[in-house]
## 1
Amino acid sequence: MKLDRFEVLSRAVGSRANRRRLVAGLVAGSGAALVGRATRLPAQTEKPADGGATPAAGGHHPVATPAFAGGPLQVRRNANALSPGERAAFVDAVLALKVKPSPWADGLSVYDTFVLWHRDAFGCAVMAAHMGPAFLPWHRTFLHLFEQQLQVVDPSVTVPYWDWTVDNTPEANIWADDLMGGNGKPDELNAVMTGPFRKGRWELTVFDHDDARQTPYLVRDFGGGFMAPTLPTAADVEEALAIPVYDAAPWNASVPAPLGFRNALEGWRDCVRETCDPVAGMSPECTGSHDMHNRVHLWVAGEFALAHEGGREDEPEASPVPVPGQDPATDLFGTMAFNSSPNDPVFWLHHAQIDRLWARWGALHGARYLPETGGPYGHNLDDPMWPFSHIGLLVSPRMNLSTEAMGYVYEG
Ligand SMILES: [Cu+2]
C-alpha cells in the first residue's frame, strides 16, 4: 500500500513536464520559503572562505560559512527553554501539518509525506539518508524542510532540540502532556495514551513495507529491551566531537567509530556488511551495540526486536508484550525503531539535537565534509540527495555545511 503511494509520487513528479513547473507549483502552494532559500544556497557556499573555515589536513574539504543574507537567523532552542505558549505553538503546527494535504504526494498529509520520504530513503537502490556520509546533511535538509512547513502554519515556530544527555529519564519535561506526551502504557500494548499525540488523536498512516502489524498509534517503551536501556551520556558526546575526521572509507555502517565523526554519531558498531531485503530495504549486519543516534531511537522505541539482527531468539522472554497471533521474537517494535520513525514527533527533537551536535563539531573542526568523490551515490560532496532532487530541490551535502547559511542557529 505504501509502496504504491511512493510510486504514485514518483510518477506524479516524473510526469510533470519539467522541474520549473514543479517548483512553480510549490511556490504557489506552501513551499515558497523553502524553495527561495534552497536555491540561494549554492552560490553562498561556494564563496571563498575568509577565515570562517580552516583548511584541514588529511584531505578535508574546507567550506566557507558566510552569513545568511535572506533575513534574520532563526533560533532553534532547547525544548526545556520553551514557554508553555511556545510549546503549544510547536504542537499546534505539527498537528496542522498532520491534516494539511501534501503538495507532493496525492492522498497524504504534509506530515505523512515526510514519514514516507524517511522510510523510502532506506530502499536498496536509494540508501540516501543512513549508513553513509550523507546521514548528517540529509537529515539537516529534512529538518529544514519540515521546519519551513511548520512556519507556513506559524512563522514563530522552530524545531526544538532534545538534549538527551541531560533530559535522560522518563520524567524529563519533554514527555509532559503539553509537548511529546509520555511513555507507552504497558497494559495498552505500550500505546502512548497521554499528550497531544496520544492514541485516538494521532493516527499513523505510513508504515514500513515489511510491517504486517501496521499499528496505527504511537508505541513507546523507554529503555525497554536490552539494546538501549540508557541514553548516550555527555561523555559519549564529547568523545565523538573530538574526532577530527568527518568520515572514512568505505563510507558506510562499517566505519569504526574512532575513524569518523559521522558514524561515531550515527551509531553503528561492529558492522560487517549491508544486505538488501527487497521489501524491508537496506540494513547492516552488526554485532556491536547501538550507540548515539541509533541508541536514542531504540531507547524511545523500546527495542523488542530488530529484524536486521535476526529477532530475539537469544532472549525471547525479554519481549514484554505478547500479542495473540504475533511472534514476539520478530514482530514487536516501538515506533521510533522503524524506518518510518518520523511517525513519532520526538523524531524531530532528537534529530535537532543530532544536527546541533554536527554544528558543534563544525565549530570545532571546520565545516568539512568527506568524500568529495568515490562514496556511494548521493553521499559525495556535490551529489544531489533523494528525495529532494525528486521534488525540484537539487540539494547536495555541500549545501548543508553551514546552518547560518541555511538561516538558523542553535541556542545553547
Ligand atoms: Cu533518519
## 2
Amino acid sequence: MAAATIPTVETARLLLRPFIVEDLEDYTHLIFADAEVMRYLPQRTSTPRERAERTMAFFNDQWVQYGYSAWAVTDKVTGQLRGHCGLNYLAEIEEVEVLYALAKPDWGQGLATEAARASVHFGFEQVNLTRLIALAVPENIASRRVMEHLGFVYEKDAHHFGLDLVQYALQRVPFQGGPPFFLAP
Ligand SMILES: CC(C)(COP(=O)(O)OP(=O)(O)OC[C@H]1O[C@@H](n2cnc3c(N)ncnc32)[C@H](O)[C@@H]1OP(=O)(O)O)[C@@H](O)C(=O)NCCC(=O)NCCS
C-alpha cells in the first residue's frame, strides 16, 4: 500500500490519517517528550525525537506490509495532531493489537474511545480480521477503560515489550448469510 493510498477515517470529532513528515515536531512534543503520556509505555534510551521519527516510519511501513497500521489522530476541525491510534501486528504472538496514545490536554473527553472504535471497525470490516487484542500495564486504568468501552474482555496476564501487561480480546461475531460485523458495546 503506497502512502497515498493509506485510508483516512473520519469520526465525529477526529480525522485519522497517515503520518506525514510535518507531524514530527508535534508528535515528539505531545507524545514522546511528555513523561505523563509515556508513563505506562515501554521505556527506551533513544531521544523523544528519535522515537517519534522511528514510530512514524514504522507505522507507515506497516501499512505497506499488512494493509493496516496506526494513523495520526487529528482534530477534524483544526487539523491539529492529537496522537496516534490504530492496529499493530505482533509477530511474536501472531495477534493484532489496538493501540492508542493521545496528548494530555485531550484526555478524558472520550477521544481515545472514539478513535479506537473506528480502528476496531476498520480491522473487522475493512481488513476482515476476526480477533483483536489490546494490551496495557495493569495500572493503566484509562487504557483499560477504553478497552472495556469497546467490549474487549480481560483474557490473561502477558509479558511483552519488557512489560508485565494485561491482555484483553475482542472477537468479531460472524453473522450467518451476511457480511461480518461485531457486537458494539
Ligand atoms: C489511555 C488514553 C489513550 C485514554 O485517552 P482518553 O481520551 O482520555 O480516553 P477516554 O476519554 O476515551 O476514556 C478514558 C476512560 O478512563 C477513565 N479514566 C481515566 N483516568 C482514570 C483513572 N486514573 N482512574 C479511573 N478511570 C480513569 C475515564 O474516566 C474514561 O472512562 P469513562 O468514559 O468511563 O469515564 C490516554 O490516557 C493516553 O494517551 N495515555 C497515555 C498513553 C497510553 O497509556 N496509551 C495506552 C497504552 S496501553
## 3
Amino acid sequence: MSPTAADRLAERVSALRGGIAYQAYLEAREAVLRMMDLSSAQPSAYWRHELSGFEYMLDASPLLIERLRHHSFHVTGLRAYDYRPGKDAHRRRLADKLGRLREIGDERHLVPESPQLGGFGHEIEGELYNLDTLKFFEAMIALDRCGALATLASSSQRSVIWEIGAGWGGFARVLKTAVPNSTYVICDLPELYLFSGPYLRTLMPDARVRYWSGEDGDALFEDWEEIDFILVPAAGLSAITPPRLDLVVNMVSFQEMTTEQVRGYLQHALDAGAHTVYSLNRDRSGYNTELSGLRELMGEQLTLEEIVLLDEAYTSLAVKKATAESDGPRQAASLRRLARRALRASAPSPRRAGDTNSYRHIVGRPRSEPGPHAR
Ligand SMILES: C[S@@+](CC[C@H](N)C(=O)[O-])C[C@H]1O[C@@H](n2cnc3c(N)ncnc32)[C@H](O)[C@@H]1O
C-alpha cells in the first residue's frame, strides 16, 4: 500500500524535527524561557503590544520553523506575499533602489537574502533581495563611510561588536560575515531570540553561540574569543562587560524604546568603552510616546555625525520617471501612484536638521577617549 498523506506528513515532520533549524529552535526556546524567568525589565508599551502578536512562536512546529522568515514580519513588517512572482512593479522599484545603492556602495558588503528558512525576496540577477536586505546594505555603506568597517577589518585583534535590538538576526549575519574575527554580542527582548537564535545557528552552522542564563559578566565573557555570538536579554544588560567594545549598532530600535532605556544603553556602551555608536533610527517612532528624542539623547554624551546616503528613507521605494514611462500608459500610471504612495511614506527632501521624522544614519563617538572598561 502506498503511504497516505498522513504518513507522508508524519515522515516530513519527523525529518524536520531532527534537522538543524528545529533543533536550534528548541535550544533557543529553552534559553528564552529561562531568560523570561530571570527578566524583570519591562519593554516599552510599543513592544509589549508587538510581543503579544507572536506568542505562538513559543510553540512552533517544525514546519513553521522551516518557514521562519515568513513569520519575521512581526519584527520588520516585510511579508513574503509582497515578493511573490508577478509583483513586477514592486520588483522593478526594488531593483531600481538596489541599483542606486550599488552606485554608492561597495559590492562586497551586499549580502542577498538566503533562501534558507523560507527566505524571500525578488529575484535579481539570480539572488533574492527585499527591503531588509537593502536596509542592511545601506547600513554597511554608512559604516564604511564613517571608517568603522576599515578599522574593524584592519584590527589584528578580535573585535567586539554589540548590536542592541537585532530583531530576526539579518544584520548580525551580514556584519559578522564582513568581520569574521569578531565576537558579536546581541541584546534584545528574550522572545526575539526565537527568531535570531535559530536563524543564526542555521545559516552559520559553524558559529559558536552562547545564551545568557543568569551569569555575571566574568562568566559570560569567559573564553570570549572562542565565541561568535553571545545572546543576552535586556534584563541581562549588567553582564555585558566585554574586554573591549569596538562598535555598537542600533537599527530601527532605539526609536521604539523609552527615554530611560535609550539613556541606559548609551551610558552602558560608554562605560564599556565603546569607540563608535552607529544608529539608523528616527528620532522617535510614530506610535511611541515614551521617548523624548533620539538625537538629543545621543548628543548628551556623544559627538554626532550624520552620514547622508540616499535622499529617501530605507522604507521607501521611489521610482525613476524613465522607468515608469517605458511601461505603457496604464502601468506607468499605476507605477506613478505607487511611487507617490511610497514617497509620501519616505523622508521629505531636502531633509532639515529639525525634522524628527526622518530615518538618519548617525555615528556617535565619545567626546573623550573611551573610558575605563566596566569590568
Ligand atoms: C523593528 S525591530 C528592528 C530589528 C533590526 N534592528 C532590524 O532593523 O532589522 C526593533 C528591535 O528592537 C528590539 N527592542 C525593543 N525594545 C528593546 C529593549 N528595551 N531592549 C533591547 N531591544 C529592544 C526589538 O525586540 C526588536 O528586535
